[in-house]
Amino acid sequence: xxxxxxxxxxxAAALARRDIxxxxxxxxxxxxxxxxxxxxxxxxxxxxxxxxxxxxxxTFTLADAAFGYACNSHGIMSAGIDVHMMYNAAAQVGDVLTxxxxxxxxxxxxxxxxxxxxxxxGTLVAGMSGTAFITGKPTAA
Amino acid sequence: xxxxxxxxxxxAAALARRDIxxxxxxxxxxxxxxxxxxxxxxxxxxxxxxxxxxxxxxTFTLADAAFGYACNSHGIMSAGIDVHMMYNAAAQVGDVLTxxxxxxxxxxxxxxxxxxxxxxxGTLVAGMSGTAFITGKPTAA
Amino acid sequence: xxxxxxxxxxxAAALARRDIxxxxxxxxxxxxxxxxxxxxxxxxxxxxxxxxxxxxxxTFTLADAAFGYACNSHGIMSAGIDVHMMYNAAAQVGDVLTxxxxxxxxxxxxxxxxxxxxxxxGTLVAGMSGTAFITGKPTAA
Amino acid sequence: xxxxxxxxxxxAAALARRDIxxxxxxxxxxxxxxxxxxxxxxxxxxxxxxxxxxxxxxTFTLADAAFGYACNSHGIMSAGIDVHMMYNAAAQVGDVLTxxxxxxxxxxxxxxxxxxxxxxxGTLVAGMSGTAFITGKPTAA
Lengths: 141, 141, 141, 141
Fold this sequence. Notes:
The structure is a homotetramer.
Chain A: H1 12-18, H2 20-24, E1 28-33, E2 36-42, H3 56-72, E3 76-87, E4 96-106, E5 110-118, E6 124-138
Antiparallel strand pairs in A: 1-2, 2-4, 3-6, 4-5, 5-6
């Protein structure tokens, strides 16, 4: 029985407690099931860039977190190696952003994801694509 | 005389003071001249992900900041519309990361940049490519 | 009335006749309606790379064609400025590949697309994301 | 002695003869040494898109070929898994395009490249970034 056949206990809440950077920014993990994860953040005054709108770094980190939980969701440690992000609309202080990561392909060593970041009004704020390398080691719990 | 012909006073320090998200993360603007910008951060305990290494969101924000200062460095407001990031090596708490953004092409409305993020030992931590849309309005000072 | 308000007559077949590179590779335009386009190709012996499987350049050109018809489908000339492609599975000689491009966001000057390339068996061969610059001129008919 | 320690005989010319798609498009391999490769093509009437300029699919295939030779140049079979391309300037029939791929990072399983595509006049036509998966098997000779 290989590692990938083993029943795994993926504990997203335990990972989230150790994900200090995302947690301190106010990013929550809403859902994390095999092949899919959802994260959320409310844009605060501390999150703005020099134009007074939500910093792309926050939007990215929100999407990257969804990607990270989704690619680790099978209980096998995986690392993002490549991401592409398109910025489609600005977000303002007070907006709630939700990122949904979906696995679109998975082989022995490589998995691919798409992430949509939407505002409460349904507008797409950003679209990410990401590639993860599957290490083969269990996700540290 | 069009805006793009006007002598401009690009004040990176003024922008940096208003770039609350990047500033609060400890990101400094080291240099910002037309077509080029350099940013720097020391990785702290508050910057780690659930594997205990530097969060990709910090590396991204550092690179994105260099990109943002470089694309606004001509004094014309520009917005990142598209970024691609390759993660090449991990960074640890205590590492100092430097991001250097270089303009590789510029037309009337679109400009392109490459950003290298390196550790103090010279290792490439991440490589970014980014596209900016040039709004034609002066950078807000 | 601006150009973007004008009723347009987008003639995909006329464009396809002039799209010599794609046409000579055997790429067909199956559908092109506002915000969406579908292209198709059968992988032939002349399409292989040095490993004997479908060359990434053919898969890319197929996806890029779908992107190009989708972003010009509103009758306003648009040019791809940025694309990202993830290769998920190989395709063999004899496989029929279908690329479907979908508009995910559109502003005055910038529009974004995702393209899925699938084999007949439904396997995702590649996923593309692309950004187009909207010139504001009518698509040449 | 692991495969990566073995002296390898990387025969770019042999690969190029089997790279039917690129060869038929008129793409030549100018140079291929460990970590670097150069390809070249003259834009012909058969290479244009519906706007009468060089098709992005040709520019991509030229850059992808340089990437492919560079990532296989160590004699270990490697496959592109992810590419990002920025289009910076158009190319016309008669232009000679040269793509230079440079390895910017390499670990046990993943390697990263940047590719510049330039016209004879030195203008950057496109900039690519790509990630390759290193299979560990020798490049088929």
